[in-house]
Request: fold
Amino acid sequence: MSTRYAGPAGSGMTGDPGDGVGTGDAQGFRLCALEARERLRALFERQRGQGMVEYGLILVLIAIVVVLILQVVGHQVSNVFSNLSSGLAT
Reply:
């Protein structure tokens, strides 16, 4: 009785180590390579999501810094524009 096995999901690989397609060691190696590739792909997908979260956090930090700067410098800018508009009006 031979043992049948299936490759990673979606790979379409099934077989029997002695079915004439190749040696069991070669097919086992291919299956290990496919599993490693699937794990690497999953790892990169998770890192892409992590990168998006990091970009979001950076944008929030930039927004907070801009708001704080505008609160500190806002009155000075308002005075400059008031002086400018009063100077143009005369």
